[in-house]
Amino acid sequence: MTPASPLAQPQPDIRRERGQREVFCGLTGIVWLHRKMPDAFFLVVGSRTCAHLLQSAAGVMIFAEPRFATAIIEERDLAGMADLDAELDRVVTRLLDRRPDVRVLFLVGSCPSEVIKLDLPRAARRLGADRPGVNILSYSGSGIETTFTEGEDACLAALVPEAPQGAAGAAPELLIVGALPDIVEDQFARLFADMGIDRVRFFPGRVAHDLPAVGPATRFLLAQPFLGDTARALATRGAERLAAPFPFGAEGTTAWAEAAANAFGVDPMRFRQAVAPGRERAKRAIARHAERLAGQTIFFMPDSQLEVPLARFLAAECGMRPVEVCTPYLHARHLAEELALLPPGTPLTEGQDVEAQLDRVRALRPDITVCGLGLANPLEAEGLTTKWAIELVFTPVHGFDQAGDLAELFTRPLRRRDVLRV
């Protein structure tokens, strides 16, 4: 699949809405980031609500000592009766004394810490000066500033300045950007090795303190569409982004890998030989579900910023009809190749006015509505079939070997509807 140049395509009309939102905050990204980087610890400076959100979302009990915690801002802190810097220093000291295995500590801002203007970047610098063996960084997961997957973007953007500077004249290196399950990372590493690209790093890697060198020799592929700040930070170091669709489905993964092949001068025959087995497996796996999905309509509520690539996959490879694709933010440059592959005339919406979008869902009555947990049950009660958007983030869905699983995530709600129909 080689999409036409986005510059040659008519620019789509995009509706922009601002209003009430129904989406998780950026703290949710800690759920998958703490599993990806076992030498990192995430300390949220927030309220008891923040702590309850993380514990319930991660499904981990506190006594299991996960690699995240919440420094609770109490009423006396909010009232200015306590020295917040001293309180934070005390918590961090106790944490690092108890967990000597921590090599990277993230101080994560929340809504309460943003409201009281707690300067976490300054605190991170101060604390880091006293702990030479621990890299202490900060980023915001506040719902005021971030939505859901943007927490990962903020975290990775905070890591970029810590990466070594790539040497002048170094051999080109491919960097895959975005947190991926280890099994998917291994599959991509084998694919690029089969293509003859041996210098490949992943960001974030499985060890948070072992960062790849970044410089003019770095060529990076985004594995996730919500990494705008991270891509900008890499570009300031001289790295070059390889424009491509995202690796969802047989065709999306092929085009994504082909962008790397073209940048690294891989022989076209070798590229085709490398991707052919995986591509055929993916096509067969998708075909088992495409028969059920073909002709079905789907409406995406804004949630994770995966909406546009997933709509492209479902339309092009499964025969579904997107009746509207809403996304929290639409990065036109990063999504240019995806937008060019959507069915002509697909309605696109950036942002959220939840009541207006629910009105359109009720009017269109799509076969599947992809939405957040808080909207799913009310819509189901109205007779509409829904798909939880959060499953699309927590389930491995990238690459050839997960393409069938991705398609199955959309056949499940249809099967459930058929079973429950009286």
UniProtKB/TrEMBL annotation:
Q: What is this protein called?
A: Light-independent protochlorophyllide reductase subunit N
Q: What is the species of this protein? A: Sphingomonas changnyeongensis
Q: Quick check: keyword S-adenosyl-L-methionine in the entry? A: no
Q: NCBIfam families from the xrefs?
A: DPOR_bchN, PRK02842.1
Query: EC?
Result: 1.3.7.7
Give the top-level enzyme category: oxidoreductase
Q: Which cofactor does it need?
A: [4Fe-4S] cluster
- What UniProt keywords apply to this chain's record, in alphabetical order? 4Fe-4S, ATP-binding, Bacteriochlorophyll biosynthesis, Chlorophyll biosynthesis, Iron, Iron-sulfur, Metal-binding, Nucleotide-binding, Oxidoreductase, Photosynthesis
Write out the pathway annotation from the protein's UniProt entry. Porphyrin-containing compound metabolism; bacteriochlorophyll biosynthesis (light-independent)
Under HAMAP family, the record lists:
ChlN_BchN
- MF term (GO), any: oxidoreductase activity, acting on iron-sulfur proteins as donors
**Taxonomic lineage of the native organism:** Bacteria, Pseudomonadati, Pseudomonadota, Alphaproteobacteria, Sphingomonadales
- Gene (name only): bchN
According to its UniProt entry, the protein's GO biological process terms are: light-independent bacteriochlorophyll biosynthetic process; photosynthesis, dark reaction
